[in-house]
Write a structure and sequence with these properties.
This protein is mainly α and about 80 residues long. It contains 4 helices and no strands.
């Protein structure tokens, strides 16, 4: 799980647009771990990290250049 987080952080550093989505998905195993081991303190980390990833993903999406459709030529 830690390796997934490190990989996600590396993707964020490279400004890969889907990195925040990847990191959000990595919270699933952390949730399972917290529930399976009874270490419910990890759930607070899951909630906080998830909020950061969602917020960052929205911000990155707004900053991402929008693709413009290719111009069409009249026949």
């Amino acid at each position: 799980m830690t390796l997934l987080g490190v990989a996600g952080t590396a993707l964020v550093g490279r400004k890969v647009w889907w990195a925040q989505h990847f990191l959000l998905i990595t919270q699933i195993p952390w949730t399972a771990f917290a529930l399976a081991t009874g270490q419910f303190g990890f759930l607070l980390g899951v909630v906080l990290n998830s909020a950061i990833y969602v917020s960052s993903a929205r911000e990155w999406q707004q900053q991402r250049p929008q693709r413009t459709p290719a111009p069409t030529t009249a026949p």
